[in-house]
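Pipeline run #58 for the internal structure catalog. This entry was flagged by the ingest filter as a single-chain record with no existing model, so it goes straight to prediction. Upstream metadata was stripped on purpose; only the residue string is passed forward. Reviewer on rotation: M.T. Logging verbosity set to normal.
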Amino acid sequence: MADIVERYNIPEQHFWLRGQRSGPPVEYDARAGMWNVYGYPELHEVLGDPATFSSDTMRVIPKHLRPDSKDLSLEGFITQIDPPEHGKLRKLVSSAFTRKVVADLEPRIAALTHELLDAAQDRGRLELVTDLAYPLPVIVIAELLGVPSSDRALFKQWADGLFQRDTKVSLAEPAEEQNVDMEATLKPWKDMAAYLAGHAAERKRQPRADLLTRLVEAEVDGERLPDGQVVNFAIVLLLAGHITTTMLLGNTVLCLDAFPEQQDKVRADRASIPDVIEESLRFLTPFAALGRATTREVEIGDVTIPADQMLMAWLGAANRDPRQFPDPDVFDPGRDPNPHLGFGRGIHFCLGAPLARLEGRVALNILLDRFDRLCTDPGDPVNFMPTPTMTGVSRLPLKI
């Protein structure tokens, strides 16, 4: 593991990638003013009990760290909503991500992959994130949503503004002692909301066969969704619909570079590609942490957590828990079973998981077809995203 940390210059804040933890599975961080859950069985419990561990974390965030409601409303922001409202909203778009609908996208995904790789080969170099891992899923989700995929430079600018940050926020320290630039944090949201509000307004005038029209025309309990809910729902779909696959594809290729014997095996047996992807999700978990807020006093991992406490559910650490995964720091696509939490668990299980898995499988198969070896260049370093709660590469140059 130490070789991988040094080879790819893995950021210090990605502690779950730097060897096994020695501390307890649940502990309180007084400096940050929140609880951390690292263990697999403990996290399994947290994610499976939305009544006790609420996704509405904003209610326990101190006022000085909350955005003004006139600047940012979380209405309709599905990842922050609890039952029963969550189920009603999720149902509105779940039919767009059924296995049948997703499977029908395979020819388009394959054609896009070849098109993007053709362009990269014409340039004589391949930087996986810029040339494939980012544009492929963002084009697919933009086409599903109904916004121009040609605007993907804008989408990347907004996503980078939100996710390429290493800010550490404390709920316990006074505002004046923290360097939290709320305006810089909110600007990507505001810009994205204005962009999608314009497209939503256009759908009211001229409906189309796309997800945005479905949201505009959707009804919950007999009433149309408010404009703010439509926009926030669209933001989640646009962001989550591409960034997970971007990280998944980059991480999987990085694993095959780090473990060349596994690359040899998957080249010889393409049927094992899904297993490689699942192990990548465990080994380099894209969304490595989620926030939750307790609604009552609860005991977890022999620790009592009071009501109205913020906790961080560290999926990346739980996926390295030796109590669940033998030899957790070994990349082993042959793990059986492999009940990782890479896409979460419970009611908030990633809605786009089937699409992300399909995009990863198709793209990886084509990469293995077109290149004799997927390997990084020691003279051209890999860059990890600095965000403490996400595991992904922002730059992955490959030799071609």
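catalog note: The first strand starts at residue 26 and ends at 29.
catalog note: The radius of gyration is 21 Å.
status: ready for reviewer M.T.
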